[in-house]
Amino acid sequence: LHYQFVLRARRDDDRRVLDRLAARAYAVITDLYPTAGVRERTERFGERVNCRVLAVDSVCTVPSGTFTKPEFAARTIRPKIAKLLDQVLEPVAEGMPRVPVSESLRASLRDTVAAGGGLTVLPLATMTDDDIARVVAACEIDHLVGAVAQPGGSVAAQARFAQFLQHGLTHYDTQRNEAGNGEGTSRLSPYLHYGHIASARVIREARAAREAVGASAADLEAFVQQVTTWRELSYNWCVRTRHFDQLSALPDWVQRTMAEHVNDPRPQRYDLETLEEARTGDRLWNAAQHELVTQGIIHNYPRMLWGKTILLWTESYEQARTWMFHLNDKYALDGRDPNSVGGIMWCLGLWDRPWGNKPVWGGLRPMVTHRAKMKFDVEGYIARVRGSRLL
Ligand SMILES: Cc1cc2nc3c(=O)[nH]c(=O)nc-3n(C[C@H](O)[C@H](O)[C@H](O)COP(=O)(O)OP(=O)(O)OC[C@H]3O[C@@H](n4cnc5c(N)ncnc54)[C@H](O)[C@@H]3O)c2cc1C
Predict the structure, then answer these.
(1) 391 pLDDT more than 70
(2) CATH 1.10.357.120 fits 154-240, yes or no
(3) For 102-106, 321-325, 344-348, which range has the lowest pLDDT when averaged over its residues?
(4) 367 CB under 6 A from ligand 1?
(5) What is the DSSP letter of 13?
(6) Averaged over 362-375, what is the pLDDT?
(7) Cβ contacts of residue 173 below 8 Å, gap of 6+?
(8) From the alpha carbon of 306, which atom of ligand 1 is closest?
(9) 3-class SS of residue 273
(10) Residue 324 pLDDT
């Protein structure tokens, strides 16, 4: 087995390295992934190269191809997942097959990679954190987005999950909205996003650990529902819907309510810079934005409030949609995911029902920060989040 990390540090660096490797390959295997431009790039790649390109449908616990139509709500996909869950959780053999790779093949692969010039092949196994920081500093990226403390990779993912099993699963059913202490949820979304841990593994191990850690059946069930129903509903939406991240994809009742309320005066307007720098007049919203910028994640409950509140502060629903995607996908470690689309479009009415008829909200479910203290320890959350700084 041979693994090589190739860094395209600058925009103008060679971008055809995969094409050259594909010219020597029998097959290229990748993920079937609907967002972040991956699906389009994979399709173009498949048309360009001469070998087989296989996109594996393995991001969700139940393969997305099982559900051939768009699912309209959690209640429609939930029973379908439940029926298949035990079957898809059958463990697969651990460990990759060991295929010896000769030194001459390694050298020739290195030559193929280097042939375009300008790419950096990194010896990750021997690099220190300082080496990595130096390489990142030289990359042509937006350096205003700072590094976060949370480490990446499958070892870190497993450690985070082990900690959650010991301290979080036990109260998940009742404490997952408690953003104040930050330990009520798994914080696995960045690892799931990058494939550092598999959702099937998470569910299998949570089931196996439940009794030993003293979690109730309700705790386990609530956690499994988040990892399966909500995650897979988002994935299904992105796979099965054209223009999945556009307002035009939202249901008819949302279109009608938006048309009726698009010109309602907004109670407050902020520009994008003020939002980005968390300088609004709302302490809780600022804390959520600060958590996003400094930790690359927002706890789910403040995240809903964060998104919904942007609707009140922007000139139109379209501007709210654009700015939510901009902020979420720029700073969130779990951004550009099908769940990013699901979460943001949910703020705009997806999978929901009409909720009365209020100014600006129209029939959209209203959520406001000044009522949040009934749901979680707002001051505890603000204090916890304000303690975090960019590295
Ligand atoms: C405006 C907005 C934007 C969002 N953007 C993202 C995003 O960019 N990436 C992302 O992964 N999630 C996003 N979500 C969904 C949700 O907030 C996160 O998945 C969750 O907070 C991750 O924290 P956790 O891993 O501790 O979750 P836990 O409660 O521990 O749940 C375990 C896993 O279940 C899945 N899950 C949990 N809640 C949801 C949900 N509501 N929808 C879909 N899957 C869920 C996630 O994969 C999560 O890691 C967004 C929600 C909103 C309202």
Answers:
(1) no
(2) no
(3) 102-106
(4) no
(5) S
(6) 96
(7) 216, 218, 219, 221, 222
(8) 1
(9) helix
(10) 98
* Residue 229 Cβ < 6 Å to ligand 1: no
Domain positions in the chain are 5-137, 154-240, 247-386
CA 340, 342, 345, 347 torsion-angle sign: negative
| C-alpha angle 169-175-181 in degrees, rounded to nearest 5 | 95
Does 307 sit in the ligand 1 pocket, CB within 6 Å?
yes
Tell me the average pLDDT of the chain.
Answer: 94
Q: How far is the CA of 231 from the centre of ligand 1 (A)?
A: 8
* Backbone φ and ψ of 29, nearest 5°: -115, 130
Quote the pLDDT of residue 1: 65
The residue-averaged pLDDT of 208-214 equals 97
Burial class (CB in 10 A: 0-12, 13-18, 19+), 67: buried
Half-sphere exposure of 129 (CA within 13 A, CB side): 5
Sign of the dihedral defined by the CA atoms of residues 236, 241, 242, 245, in that order: negative
Q: What is the DSSP letter of 181?
A: T
Please tell me the predicted confidence (pLDDT) of residue 364: 98
Cβ of 321 closer than 6 Å to ligand 1, yes or no, is no
Cα 173 to Cα 223: distance, rounded to the nearest angstrom: 7
- Closest-CA residue, ligand 1 atom 32, reads 227
* Residue having the nearest C-alpha atom to atom 51 of ligand 1: 343
Q: Ligand 1 centroid vs 27 CA: distance in angstroms? A: 33
Distance 190 CA to ligand 1 centre (A): 9
Q: How many CA atoms lie within 13 A of 134 on its CB side?
A: 6
Query: In terms of CATH, what superfamily is 247-386?
Result: DNA Cyclobutane Dipyrimidine Photolyase, subunit A, domain 3 (1.10.579.10)
User: 340 in ligand 1 pocket by Cβ < 6 Å?
Assistant: yes
Nearest alpha carbon, ligand 1 atom 46: 189
Q: Residue 362 forms beta bridges with which residues?
A: 358
Pocket test for ligand 1, best of 77, 161, 192, 226 (most atoms within 8 A of CB): 226
